[in-house]
Amino acid sequence: MTERKRTPWVVGVSGASGTPYAAAVLRGLLAAGESVDLVVSRASRLTLLDETGIAFRDAHWREDLAQWLGRGADGKPETFARPELDDVRYWGAGDLAAGPSSGSYPVKGMLIVPASTACVAGVALGLSKDLLQRVASVTLKERRRLVVAVRETPLNGQTLRHLVALDEAGAIVLPASPAFYTGATHIQDLVDFVAGRVLDAAGVPHQLYRRWEGELGSSRTPREASAGD
């Protein structure tokens, strides 16, 4: 029997605030049976430590990732069952000889969640200063899907021009902008909406949020029903 060829999604995590978005996307990919190659920038480790208290270490990445993915958006540990990480491969941010740094390395595409303005600028300008930016540049040159979940507000003219450049290069620019028509009652619902839109852009099936079906007020139904019980 021929072994199934591994073709992962590369998930890049930059230093912007929003590490729960990355965790939700990773959980969604793994739940869908997707392979994942993970790149965590140096700046994102500081953000992760600040937002979750988790120190992400190269030598213990599997243990630290499991802890991260088990944590809810509200900071509570063990909110989610820790997923199997057998099909996750981790690459250090400084490893420019990593597999995904080459266009000949087979991947489905790349999801940058969250994407800082510095990351956006680096990718738009083709700087490739670290592995995250290098993989994004490779993704664009190979005409693979690149989703950039930018997380910043307000946006200045320079960043807007960089985002337009990414759009023109073929990337999908997806602001981390939660919606409320889904009937969110918890911070995790808002995080899952953004993560779900990232997965939508990648064409990965999920059940992270309730989709709009054209019926006004439908998002309030579960809340009203539970209030009356």
From TrEMBL:
The record places domain Flavoprotein at 9-201
User: Per the similarity annotation, which family is this?
Assistant: Belongs to the UbiX/PAD1 family.
| UniProt keyword terms in alphabetical order | Flavoprotein, FMN, Prenyltransferase, Transferase
For this protein, what is the EC number? 2.5.1.129
Under what name is this protein listed? Flavin prenyltransferase UbiX
Role according to the record: Flavin prenyltransferase that catalyzes the synthesis of the prenylated FMN cofactor (prenyl-FMN) for 4-hydroxy-3-polyprenylbenzoic acid decarboxylase UbiD. The prenyltransferase is metal-independent and links a dimethylallyl moiety from dimethylallyl monophosphate (DMAP) to the flavin N5 and C6 atoms of FMN.
Q: Which residues form a coiled coil?
A: none
Q: Which domain of life is it from?
A: Bacteria
| Taxonomic source organism | Streptomyces virginiae (Streptomyces cinnamonensis)
Q: Which residues bind FMN?
A: G15, A16, S17, S41, R151
Binding positions (dimethylallyl phosphate)? Y181, R197
Swiss-Prot/TrEMBL catalytic activity: dimethylallyl phosphate + FMNH2 = prenylated FMNH2 + phosphate
